[in-house]
Amino acid sequence: MMTISNNIFSSIQHDLNILDKNLKKMVGAKHPVLYAAAEHLFSAGGKRIRPAIVLLVAQATMSNNYIFPEHRRLAEITEIIHTASLVHDDVVDECQIRRGIETVHNTFNTKVAVLAGDFLFAQSSWYLANLNNLDVVKTISKVITDFAEGEVRQGLSNFDSTISIEDYIEKSFYKTASLIAASCKGAAMISNASKKTQNDFYLYGKHLGLAFQIIDDILDIISSKESLGKPAGSDLRNGNLTAPLIFTLEEYPQIYSFINREFQNTEDINTTIQIIKNSQGIQKAKDLAQEHIQASLKAIKNQRNCEAKKTLQLLSNYILYRLH
């Protein structure tokens, strides 16, 4: 779970406050159970990192730092899509807790959680269509397909010890980086920025998203339940093999036997976590995240210098500091 010092977003804090209010209004469904589910999601208090990035890209691509109402709406749509994906994720992973509180399907039931996720995806599509910007619609709607693709790929590769780092990066793109990349590009499109600028910000978002996912996966191994808001080693339990483990397998092939029996013995998970911590796996995963951070910074290096660009650069580096 990401804790971001508030002052990093001070220039858009007012916009983020408006966003919170609007999100509550936007998910006001006719059916009380769906509304309760949606409320439950938004009251869990995510860090709003994705909409913050959209607003910063908006400022960085407008000559006077002005943010259009369409930029604000895109930021809201991005957060709704992200939240919808988390609800479905939790159902698929049978996750009981997220951000330290019970997940939707645990509070209500699986059926309601699936419907709540569908409802949020549908709401986001409706608001997206109402932006009346076909290019943005095409760019963002691709993300919803990518989420589904990522889920299916993850489901098919559970406990698959032959997974390569390339497979892992591709899966991470579908599950995390696609949304950040597309919403950065969408914000630049709304600003009527050049194709080159749109693509630069797409690459910024893509590499930032990949680094973000890799760091998340490291934290899943090395953090406590308290700081994660969910049990450590959740990925392993679900058969989701991530960068630290894939790198460790090269060094400690004995882990293969734990994976092949799906960590069924009581101590399998703890032993595996211990082995990963004693290996080069964490460091190699950090190095991989660092490469993507560098790529994200390189992507926007030639964009005009302004406060918003500085904040986006700071944010890139901040992601790595989550490990300290």
Your description of this structure?
This protein has 324 residues and is an all-alpha fold. It has a domain at 7-216 and 291-302: Orthogonal Bundle (Farnesyl Diphosphate Synthase). Helices cover 72% and strands 1% of the residues. It is built from 16 helices and two strands. The chain has helices spanning 13-26, 32-43, 49-61, 69-93, 104-107, 110-129, 134-156, 165-190, 195-222, 225-228, 234-237, 243-251, 255-260, 268-278, 281-299, 307-321; strands at 97-98, 101-102. The protein has a two-stranded antiparallel ribbon. A hairpin with a 2-residue loop joins strand 1 (97-98) and strand 2. It is globular, with a radius of gyration of 19 Å. It starts with 12 loop residues before the first helix and ends with a helix. One of its GO terms (molecular function) is metal ion binding. One of its GO terms (biological process) is quinone biosynthetic process. Its cofactor is Mg(2+). This is Prenyl transferase. Keywords: Isoprene biosynthesis, Magnesium, Metal-binding, Plastid, Transferase.
Short description:
This protein is mostly helical. The protein is 72% helix and 1% strand.
CATH superfamily placement of the domain at 7-216 and 291-302: Farnesyl Diphosphate Synthase
CATH class of the domain at 7-216 and 291-302: Mainly Alpha
Radius of gyration: 19 Å
Number of strands: 2
Strand sequence of the main sheet, in spatial order? 1-2
CATH architecture of the domain at 7-216 and 291-302: Orthogonal Bundle
